[in-house]
Write a structure and sequence with these properties.
elongated; Thrombin, subunit H; 151 residues; four-stranded antiparallel beta sheet; single chain; five-stranded antiparallel beta sheet; Chitinase A, domain 3; mainly beta; 2 domains
């Protein structure tokens, strides 16, 4: 007679889950609880490393709610990621002819071929100041997850 153990989330597991990420004020940042569940492959960068770490070891069918400090979620704010970008660089590496306003999230093409984004903080005739920190960096967040299935 063999007994099957309940699957648990591992570093390379394929998951079906509902999850909610909210701020400490209880305001949802993202939630799948009222929609279709999400599917993701752990270790592929679909969630931040901190969020993935919070899911490790959870059993299929479990429901968790965890408060994650910045160092365990999206990291602390890094002042070195607030950078000045020349207008030439902005025009060359972002959407052609785009008119930006303070607070816009602007996508840039990286020299390696990838993309990254920054939030516009200031702009003048010489250039623009961008914050390339993750928008949730430095914030404590609440992660709620219901693990539906694990492969």
């Amino acid at each position: 007679m063999s007994y099957l153990s309940t699957p648990v989330v591992t570093q390379d597991a394929y998951l079906t889950l509902h999850y909610r990420l909210s701020g400490m004020d209880g305001q949802d940042i993202i939630s799948t609880f009222n929609d279709s569940p999400a599917t993701l492959q752990m270790g592929q960068g679909q969630l931040s490393p901190g969020l993935e770490a919070a899911l490790l070891g959870l059993q299929e069918g479990s429901h968790t709610k965890q408060e994650l400090k910045p160092e365990n979620a999206f990291g602390p704010r890094n002042p070195d990621l607030i950078r000045h970008v020349s207008l030439e660089t902005l025009q060359k590496n972002s959407a052609f002819g785009e008119q930006y306003i303070i607070g816009d999230l602007v996508d840039f093409s990286a020299p390696s071929g990838g993309e990254f984004a920054g939030i516009l903080k200031a702009i003048d005739e010489k250039g623009a100041l961008f914050d390339f920190n993750h928008p949730l960096a430095g914030q404590t967040v609440v992660l709620e997850a219901k693990i539906i299935g694990i492969l």
